[in-house]
Amino acid sequence: MRVIWFVSQVLLFGVIAAKMVNVPDYFQYYVGGLSVMTLYSTAIFIGFDIYEEAEHGVFEYLLSLPVSRRQLVIGRSIGGGLRAFIYVGPLVAISLFVIGAVNPLSFAIALLALFLFSFGVSGMSIAIAVLIKSSDRFDIFMGVLDAFIVRLSTTMYPLKIIQQTNPIYGWTASLNPLSYAADLFRWGTGLEKIIYVQNPLLPLMGIVAFFGLFTLLGITIYERMIEGGGWR
Amino acid sequence: MKGIIRMVEHDFRNFFRYKWWLVGLISMNLADLFVSALVYNTILRPSVSSAIGSYFNFFAPGLAVTGLFASAFMIGREINMERRREVHHYMLSLPMTRLELAIGRVLSGGLRGMMYMSPLLLTCFIFVGFPTIWQLLLILAVLFMLAVGISGLSISIAVSTSSLEKFITARGAVYYVLFFCSTVFYPLTVIQSAGATLATLAEINPLSGASDMIRSILMPRFFSFSYLSIFYIAAFSATFTFTAVFAYMKILERK
Fold first, then answer.
1. A58, A84, A138, B132 - which has most CB atoms within 10 Å?
2. Which of A8, A10, A12, A44 is the best substitution to test chain B (most B C-beta atoms within 10 A)?
3. Could you tell me which residue, A10 or B198, shows the higher pLDDT?
């Protein structure tokens, strides 16, 4: 399903929208952002696993394992992020081939940042899933969050254009972790026409902060909410 | 006739069970309009801008059609679930004819689509302009025809796929091809510059026909009314309504 979505976005929306807008190399720009959007929506899935485990009684088994709650959350965040990365890996490779990435060294750094980003998204998904406690409400909440977090980011259009459209949109996009990941990914490709960041260190720091914040939040919420069957 | 009304009532009750899911869908649609469309409005090529005016106004009718499609298609998911959980045996045991059951399901899918689409269409009217009463009736009639066709398409897929995964995959393929290869997001002139095949597909696409029909009424300066696109919608609707009614009656009885 996600592959169909990705391919149709690249071959239909990406190709046609590039002929509609006045942004240089918009097709390459869009495909770069699309990889990050796909990574984000895949990493979110770990939250749904939490509900499934709770439904099938696997949650109790996990809690009985000889690992601390902290290790459990960090392990799950990394596992969820890694899983998303493996899943999206072939699509990212296709994207790089399509847009013709040229700089392997900077791309390796961007890839590392994307790893941290997907771990952070997994941590966020776990934290929200444990906090909300209902798979239906989680599904809706993530849908609404997805609607705004993707559109108010630089995955689809450059920051300066968002700022021109509406300063509040621009301000939100400049603080959005999806923007950091998309900007770093594009920087990693080495294609100058689609690089809009002056200093890649800033989005990198943003991603590290996002990862740190949500891993910490995940641990805190997980530890507080699950004891004594509190996650039910 | 009574049976059809009962089925419509049954499906409407089910529809309201998904109210929070609908809230999520509406917020996604509104984010598309009030964020993405506004941003794209500022980066349009001058040639496109002169052909369509504002992208926000261009996209608003397309968004109503998007909402109509997504909600009318939901009936398929329910029918697929009923089939997997064998609820269809119960449905077949109801005191109504198979024809009433099948027509009721197709109709309710279409009506639910219309209902969900109404606030999006109203938003479009508020920002783009209000039609006259006759124009409004024409818009609603064409959109209802489209909604019934979409519901029929969804039911045809639902009864011919045995698992949820297969249904979701088929839905994804239909959904994305129909959307991205239509004039919902971009004008036909832009699609023509991307390829002749894509342009032909977009021209016969019923979603293009419905979006452009609303645009031709609300923005006559930029778009002209086409009887041919209404014919494509009618052909699409007739084909899938009959397919769905036939498939629902025959396939469910066989299982």
1. A84
2. A12
3. B198
Nearest to B211 by CA among B67, B89, B61, B91: B61
d(CA B219, CA A35): 36
Q: Are A39 and A88 in contact (CB under 8 A)?
A: yes
Question: Range of B238's domain?
Answer: 2-254
For residues B20 and A138, give the distance between their C-alpha atoms in angstroms, rounded to a whole number: 11
Give this complex's ipTM.
0.82
Candidates A8, A16, A37, A196, partner chain B, best to mutate (most B CBs within 10 A): A16
d(Cα B62, Cα B59) in Å, to the nearest integer?
A: 5
Q: Phi and psi dihedrals of B102, rounded to 5? A: -65, -45
The domain limits of chain A are 28-229
Question: What is the model's pTM?
Answer: 0.85
- Count structural domains, chain B: 1
Mean pLDDT (chain B) is: 86
Nearest to B23 among A4, A13, A140 (CB): A140
User: For B201-226, what is each residue's pLDDT tens digit?
Assistant: 999 999 999 999 999 999 998 888 88
B31/A157 touch (CB, cutoff 8 Å), yes or no: no
pLDDT averages per 10-residue partition of chain A, 232 residues = 76 86 87 88 83 77 82 82 83 76 72 84 86 77 85 91 92 92 85 75 88 84 70 58
Instruction: List CB contacts of B48: < 8 A, sequence separation 6 or more.
Output: A20, B187, B189, B190
Put simply, the answer to whether A165 touches B45 (Cβ < 8 Å) is: no
Is there a contact between A94 and A13 (Cβ–Cβ < 8 Å)? no
Binding-site residues on chain A for chain B (CB distance < 8 A): 1, 4-5, 8-9, 12-13, 15-17, 19-23, 136-137, 139-140, 143-144, 146-148, 151-152, 156-157, 161-162, 164-166, 169
